[in-house]
Amino acid sequence: GSGGGGKGKRSWLPTLHVVRHGSKAVTRHWKPMHLERQKLMAVTEYIPPKPAIPERCLKPLVKKIEEETGYERLVRRQAVEAFRESRMITVCQYNSLSNDDMLMLRHQLRKHNIHVKFFPNEIIIPFLLESKYVNLLPLFVGRNIVLVSPETKAKEMLRMLKRVPQIVLLGACIENTILSKEGVVKFSKLPSLEVAQGEMVGTLSLVASQTSSLLCRSSLHLTALLDQYVKQQSNGTGETNVQAEMGPAESSQGV
Amino acid sequence: MAGFVPPNKAGVVLKQVKSILVQFCPFEANVEATRKFLECLYAKKAVASSVGCEVKTDVRHDGSEPVVDIVFADGDRLIMKGANLTTKEMLLAFNSRCAVKELKEQEKTQKNT
């Protein structure tokens, strides 16, 4: 026919536009573009401008500083308070414990005024870095609990913890002294303050009481002892003019 | 940080184990893997599967390396020095040996019956 035509014909009349295969321009399946159109699309594709050095290399990586939530601030405040008010701080590793056992342990410790506290590592580690407890830092790996107490009842605490093998005592800070587990055990075996003071007084007064008992005994004994002492001195130094004789010893009474 | 293993998913089965001794020095820097391994040993499933297995922990302060000493029910011993191991490696070594022993025991019981 005249004009119009199938595919491949260069000239076409707009009025007579016969399309082969009866397919329309807009189809529901994928229809490949006409070759000329494909070529045109390929030639006119958008090429974005590329800088010589990509931006990624120039800009320093900016880490987002997340703001502290109110909860974190609360927990940190609690940690600060707990550390400030307690004389004994014990760090233990917390392995899974049944709820009943944990409750029993908390109850037993509470009887001796020992509180079981749990702080998340992200909060406690920066806090420790800035405080004087820096040397406790290596203990805080994995799950830990902190036992704080205003008193220092180490013996009772050790007894409770012995019954619960899942809680492993790692270290403690008692009266501002950092102790290892052996240190805590030794501390628990120390006698109480009153007993220690009594022992000290006893030792100091031992010397004085020995002297007084010496003097209270017979003067002959005393003179013999002093003779011997003089001989020892003269052997050692070679010149002494100490009187070997002394009058009868005064009977000094009292301690 | 080479992969965090939650203790429940560690798949520790203590059936073939007679006793475990874990020694470490908590103030040292290389104990993380050993401590995590210890945590896995006390997981619920592990405790449920154990048949009178004792897990002892020895906390020292002498700068020694962390050691895990495991004695199996058939007398074998596994010693793991955890200073340069990760938790996953320790779990793999332990679990694989346990699985082998479990298989052997199953075969024995099948032969008997």
UniProtKB/TrEMBL annotation, chain A:
Belongs to the universal ribosomal protein uL10 family. This is Large ribosomal subunit protein uL10m. The gene is MRPL10. InterPro entries: Ribosomal_uL10 (IPR001790), Ribosomal_uL10-like_sf (IPR043141), Ribosomal_uL10_bac_type (IPR047865). Pfam families: Ribosomal_L10 (PF00466). GO terms for cellular component: mitochondrial inner membrane; mitochondrial large ribosomal subunit; nucleoplasm. Its main location: mitochondrion. It is found in: Mitochondrion. Keywords: Mitochondrion, Ribonucleoprotein, Ribosomal protein, Transit peptide.
TrEMBL record, chain B:
It comes from Sphenodon punctatus. This is Large ribosomal subunit protein mL53. It comes from the Eukaryota. Its main location: mitochondrion. The keyword Mitochondrion applies. Gene3D superfamilies: Glutaredoxin. Belongs to the mitochondrion-specific ribosomal protein mL53 family. The keyword Transit peptide applies. It is found in: Mitochondrion. Transmembrane segments: none annotated. One of its GO terms (cellular component) is mitochondrial large ribosomal subunit. Keywords: Mitochondrion, Ribonucleoprotein, Ribosomal protein, Transit peptide.
